[in-house]
Design a protein that fits this description.
This is Metallo-beta-lactamase domain-containing protein. The chain is of the alpha+beta class and 392 residues long. It contains nine helices and 19 strands. It has helices at residues 91-99, 110-116, 134-137, 155-159, 279-285, 306-321, 353-356, 358-362, 368-376; strands at 30-35, 38-43, 48-49, 57-60, 63-69, 74-78, 103-106, 124-128, 148-151, 181-183, 193-194, 197-201, 208-212, 221-228, 231-235, 257-259, 276-278, 297-298, 325-328. The radius of gyration is 20 Å and the shape is globular. The model is unreliable at 266-274 (pLDDT under 50).
Amino acid sequence: MPSNQDASMYMVPPKTPPALNIPPSNSTVSVKIIDSTSWIEVPLGSLMGPGIPGHDKLSCPSYCFLIEHGPLGRKILFDLGTRKDWENLAPSIVNIIKDHKWGLTVEKNVSEILTGEGVDLKSIEAIIWSHWHYDHTGDPSTFPSSTKLIVGPGFKDALTPGYPVNQNSQVRESDWQGRELVEVDFSASGDLTVGGFKALDYFGDGSFYIVDAPGHAIGHVCGLARVTPDSFIFMGGDACHHGGEYRPTKYLPLPKKIDLDMSSSTIKSRAFCPGSLSGAAFCDVFNHHKPDQEVYILAKNFSHDTDRANLTIHYLEEFDAADNVFVIIAHDTFLLQKEAEIDFFPRGSLNDWKAKRLDEKARWLFLKDFAEAAEKGLKQETEMGEGIILKP
């Protein structure tokens, strides 16, 4: 529970989360969040469930991060969204997108977004892929060959060579052709951990960690950036796809009262604008009726390794409960809304998130997806689909 909040505001008393034991350091990085201009629409049941009336699809952006180490003069990117010419993705994934009629639009490559704001692409030393799925890999070929591509454990064995050498591959050989392809080796860090995750200290000074977050896909990693000596941004990638997968929890139960301004909802069909709803009204929607249990669970066949994906979610929840960590997953639609008060690139950085209490402002916005059901007394479904996995 955030230290500045009263336990009495919650429906049940919050439990104390375990210590994260992040090594101390005074070294920091600047973190800017980038709206990659990707917009994706997929059936909710392909990923998670059981469904809730009014929320039958995941309509979402795909965020990236520009991480700058000022004293060292070094810049890296975490994820790239989807490439603008997405029909030039590897044919196997293009066919999946079209066959399943998934919605996908992209206005710009991240390289265009950066150069449009005066960022020299030669200054980007590395791109870190949280994982190899099309909505995160972008188009690395638009960056100079001096920019390394960093991938998680197991990537090279499972996914190289890429298309067209391997006609069935879902990644393109051109993504790393002519540049250094680096696979993270967490064993090189000995027993370094942050929270429950194995970690690699990227700059060597405690300012940015790549963390091993397996389960969703082969080689899935997250990022942990120190933005002040004692506050952090956790870049969750696809550890979760919706706030309902990792909230509420025993550490962060539902509040008794939740203010939701539906006038800024990205779901254009919303015709009502409730001022506030009780936590109890949402509990009545959920199958389990509990204020301290996640709303959604992973679809059976969605993850590469469901057990490890669930463990990753558990560890992420411990970060989410810490009052000095702001967890941002790649597809959190509600960060785009005005009440989240997020300054996207190029407007500013996220380094002052704690002073602005951005974590508190964004935390329960995902409940907008369930507000209609709560207002109308509708119930969560009891059955769910098995999901769809992207296999390498």
